[in-house]
Amino acid sequence: MFTEDKNNKHAVPAINQEEWNIRYDILKHSLWIFAKCLLCLDVFWYIVLVGGGYAPIFTTLKEIAIAPAVLLLSAGAFQACYGYFKLPLSDYTIQILLNVAVTLIITSDRWTHSLQAVCILPMIFGLIIGNPRLIDLQVAISAAMMIVQFLAIEMESTAQWKGSMLLNLSGIVFDIVLMARLILQIRKYTQMLNTQTTIDSLTRLFNHEAFYTELDKQLSEFQEAAKPLSILIADIDNFKKVNDTFGHAYGDKVLRVLAGIFSEESSDKCFVARYGGEEFAMIMELNQSDAITKAETIRKCFEQKKIPTENGVINSFTISIGIAFYHPKYKTSSQFFQKADEALYKAKAGGKNRVCV
Question: Please, is 65 exposed, middle or buried when counting C-beta atoms within 10 Å of its C-beta (0-12, 13-18, 19+)?
Fold first, then answer.
């Protein structure tokens, strides 16, 4: 997810809006999970303490509601601020906010007596983003939190409450439910992040990196079991003129139309990706005849598409396609792809709007 800066290997690059949204999502839901779980536990203990005659009603209500109230206000304020200001949440910002949330929980709740488990949430997030310096710092912070919270419990609790089976059991159940909810939320985060790193945001096809990962996998399988394997590369003819004449928004619309055609023509034997810019690529487990037929179908279908502008002007465009068929002499995926690229160049040089092998 991160790339290293040439001048500072520890520098963290700016993140885009989609990444901000993912970070916002996990932090927002984590705060609400904290608040709801703690509120449920405090309601339980309020019933026990007041119903059992251990404490006065209003004093207990005031003391037991502090932690959930603080967290509910924090979660609500964070959600409102993000929605209004579109907060740019870097990884360090998220770690700070998660630590603040955990600190609020363990310092403002006096009835749970078993909240050390929540201290590991920021550490889990640090492990996910894979920043070594941040992980080391968070381990130290989480360890300090757990020690301080344990000592506070020992000093505040009476002998009666220290030995209470009900208190200990409720703390265990709370920790299990809370961690299960958080794990599900973190899993959702990692799935979203994985999708973001392999899917092109404009066309929703696989991206350049995913293409080469799949191509390496296909070449490996080809060595084990002989099967037809080919690469198709398509490039929109004169696409620069499209952007210069009609604007980039219209150019994006043209790209999405072509991406839709590739999606419609794909199958379980075809892997489609946006290779970059106006170039699309397809890995096909098809013989030579079927691969050429597939390429011609895509070319003709795109040529026949009528794509209107905002002013009502109807345009149609063409693509050039290059195809390469695998041969054992190709030792790497790059060599294989280079042959398809050469075929695409031939199609461009030969007048465009054609398929070359």
Answer: middle
Catalytic-residue membership of 278? yes
Task: Give the model's confidence band at 198: pLDDT under 50 very low, under 70 low, under 90 confident, else very high.
Answer: confident
- What are 333's two structure tokens? 């995926």
Q: What are the pLDDT digits (tens) for 289-327?
A: 899 999 999 999 999 999 998 888 889 999 999 999 988
Residue 86 DSSP code: -
Look at residue 6 and tell me whether its pLDDT is greater than 50: no
pLDDT in tens, 90-149: 777 778 888 887 887 777 666 555 666 677 778 777 776 667 778 888 888 888 888 877
Ranges of H-type helices in the chain: 17-51, 57-64, 66-85, 91-108, 121-129, 132-156, 159-162, 165-198, 208-224, 239-246, 248-265, 288-304, 333-349
3-state secondary structure of 247: coil
> Residue 276 in 3-state DSSP?
strand
The mean pLDDT of the chain is 78
Bridge pairing between strands 355-356 and 270-276: unpaired
Distance, in Å, from the CA atom of 277 to the CA atom of 239, rounded to the nearest integer, reads: 9
- CA separation for the pair 86, 348 (Å, rounded): 44
State residue 228 phi and psi, 5-degree precision. -70, 140
Return d(Cα 327, Cα 231) in angstroms, integer.
Answer: 12
Residues 6+ apart with CB under 8 A from 92: 12, 134
Contact (Cβ atoms closer than 8 angstroms) between residue 291 and residue 340: no
Catalytic residue from among 154, 214, 265, 278? 278
